[in-house]
Amino acid sequence: MKRLAAVAALLGLAAVTACSGSTGDKPAAGGSGSGGGLYTTIDGLKPGLDVNGPINPWNPKGNAFLGFNAMRIAWSKNHLTDPNQFYPGIAASWEIAPDNSSITLHLHPGNKWSDGKPVTAEDVKFSIALAYTQGSTAFAIDPGAAGAASEVEVVDEKTVKITQDMDNPSVTFVRGVMDSYIVPQHVWGSVLPADFWDKLKAARGEGAEAEKAREEITALSEKVLAFAPPKDVSAGPFTLERMNPSEALLVKNKNFYNAANVGPDQVKMLNYTGNEQIWNYLIAGKLDNAPFTAVPADVMKRITTTQGNGVVKGYSPVSLGMAFNQSKKPYDNVHVRRGLAYLINRDEVTKIASPEGGTPAVTTTGIHQKPAAEWLGADLAALEPYKLDVAKAEEEFKEAGLKKEGGKWTLPDGTPWKFTVNVPAPFSDWISGAKAVTSQLTAAGIDAEVVTTADYPLYLKELAEGKYDVGFWLIALGPAPYNIYQRLYGVSNGWSILGGKLKHAEPGKNGNWMGGPETIEVDGAKVNPGELTAKLNSASGDEQKKIIGQLAKAANQDLPVVQLWDYVNTQFVNTNRFTGFPENDSDLLRQPSGVWIQLGMVKKKQ
Amino acid sequence: MTAPVIAAGGGRAALRRNFWRGVWRVLKRKPSRMVGMVIVLGFAFMGVFGPMFYPDPLPRDTAALYAPPSWEHPFGTDFEGTDVLALLVTGSRYVLLTALVTAVITVVVGAAIGLFAGFRRGRWDTVLMRITDMKLTIPGLPLLLVLSTIWKFTSALEMGLVLGLLGWGGVARAVRSQTLSLRERGFIEAARGLGLSTTHIIGRELLPSMAPFVAMNMLIAVTGAVYAQVGLFFLGVLPFEANNWGVMLNLAVFGGGAMSSPAALPYLMAPLLAILLLTLGIVLVVDAMDEIFNPRLREE
């Protein structure tokens, strides 16, 4: 629906890296006796509540609210550079093998489901089996998938060890494991056949039998998605009590491991279908928290004048880029892309499109400016900043053979150049941004227009089919460096890892819509950016830093995208009823407020 | 021998003169009708000549985003500092041309099918009316939403064509029933008795009696077409044009927060007022037209 949901969904997909051992943080201690009250919020991932949706975390319309009644093994901190930091979820602590080959999870002792049955290692193993049917980075059934688990072993009632298939390791393995939803086996047991793990073993082999087993497991996917437990049995801080089309009511789960520190007794999730509804809830002071929502400047003023409302800002590992389809002329020419970069005034575009939720990109590196400063250090300043410079743009265009006739730029053969940028219609900030870009280009003599696509899924489909010349594209999906650069030099630009081998597809094939060349020239030397990106999957330490430096330079000179603005995670809190919300720049801002509550931070105002 | 011919020609000219004099008299009778006429002519002028008064592209003032109304910007500015009135005026051509094309197609196709089916009756009637029934069962808006995913409607003619082809059903049905009643009247029977051709009877005998109804339908189709296309653009399913009225409404509500804060309110109000004014103008003109064509309403 709205931009916020799209960003959140993509963040959910972002998996991660690093190879150091770590243990979980202890939940924040909170004074007891500060509980009570009704906490009102919205779920940023679910625009439009569906009363008929199953209480199923895998179902996109399901009524499992992340952090409230849907639990993950652990909650990622989305740290700037170290993606292996988590807050405890179902697991209280964990050990990661130094070579990233395995992770051992220790569940909270004495943790129970809301129906009183204990949360066990078997539940975790069973939920992982469910995750296999949906396919994910850590639990993929394709043989040779990078970062897939090879074994799930129940060590004792509260301990599970998950081993990575080291034939084709990936730094995304740990994050993939931690992001798994955990559901009760005694409720969901009927969904999977008793011999599931044998089937899985067979699916990992080769030949007709393995193929059949893979098909059987994939066929279970629909069954898992459709499963609707008769009532909510949750290991989260809340359980779903009842709902109607306008709101869902959740009540405190007395059996939750940290129930003593959970502030609110009840949580109300309000329905919304668009950002403007969220703005109105905020202006009315109804919401105790609203996750990242695009807000126009004047509405922001109205919201902040409401008694108790406050704005908390933090880092959001997402940037917006304007991506080129290099199989279309004249965007195959790097000088055209550079010329366009010189003509776009990013400060003005950001001011018009996302004054509250973004900061203008300092340059194009493919990384959000905050982690870029950490990864690149002084090298960041050495990169070409592409400040507004009409003279340089003209130079670049001339280098590309474009001609200016009667104040209008034409292609080298004299045919008119029509610059068309595509954006999905529901994202109002992208539309404003695209319009600002075309206005700037039109003023510089380029015939530019914005074309919208009815919705985001259709937009992504048409983009992947290579139907657009230029389109807006989320980049810098950190914190794992591999995930950051696969947005520029991954599947959408032709490089995919199949069976542990990196392959480059021709433009227009296998999802390659960016259509860049396999090797590009960086400082006069030939570089294969896809190969470098794939290396980030297993590189660590200084090697990782070196590769990121090379890729940032490549992205800066090759410009597969022009980075427009870096998102700022702007959230709203209201301190009339509750206190203890995260401060500015807290890593918890990158998790839903249910996680803040379950860690014992949010307290009723005394 | 030439005298009767001259007399006939002079008679027709006199009839036309009398007609326009009648129109003028009818308009003058109620000031509201004059107002309606002025509004409609004003919109027609705006659609034809309005865009010529503004430079292309329209100037932007990025220091004044969502500026409040002032002498310089009577309806304020939009999200990138462009004058809202300029957007409204330059955008009127697409909206009005679409509405005109829609109205013409609706009325021509609807009246032709209705007249022919009603006059011929029998097999032709059955076939044409079943087609009309089928057409009436197609829900317009959902179909347009689906169509918009494959067709971008960049030109007003395309948009008008689609809206027109979706809208003739009601007119065809109404015209047919009128025809069924008229064809039993004496003057039609006389015409048939004289052996006049179907084209003559339909074109010269039936159509003039139907003219007021058809003309009013045409004006009402204009408002319908404006609502339909502005609605589609408002929903964001059609291509982006900053000066399209529907796009302006969409961006004012979803981008500027016009429903939540006053800054974008003028941006929202401008296209709304324009649509309201156009509708008002048409309703007032329809009132006059009713009297022009319907002798029983004439207050001589």
From TrEMBL, chain A:
Entry-linked InterPro entries: SBP_5 (IPR039424), SBP_5_dom (IPR000914)
Residue ranges of domain Solute-binding protein family in the record: 86-493
Annotated keywords: Signal
Protein name (Swiss-Prot/TrEMBL): Peptide/nickel transport system substrate-binding protein
High-level lineage: Bacteria, Bacillati, Actinomycetota, Actinomycetes, Streptosporangiales
PANTHER family given in the database record: OLIGOPEPTIDE ABC TRANSPORTER, PERIPLASMIC OLIGOPEPTIDE-BINDING PROTEIN, PERIPLASMIC BINDING COMPONENT OF ABC TRANSPORTER
Residues making up the signal peptide according to the UniProt record: 1-20
TrEMBL record, chain B:
Compartments (UniProt record): Cell membrane
SUPFAM superfamilies cross-referenced by the UniProt entry: MetI-like
Location (main, coarse): membrane
Annotated TM spans: 34-54, 94-116, 136-153, 214-238, 264-286
Domain of life: Bacteria
Membrane topology type: Multi-pass membrane protein
Pfam families: BPD_transp_1 (PF00528), OppC_N (PF12911)
Keywords: Cell membrane, Membrane, Transmembrane, Transmembrane helix, Transport
Ranges where the ABC transmembrane type-1 domain occurs: 92-286
Family according to the record: Belongs to the binding-protein-dependent transport system permease family.
Protein name per Swiss-Prot or TrEMBL: Peptide/nickel transport system permease protein
Organism encoding this protein: Streptosporangium brasiliense
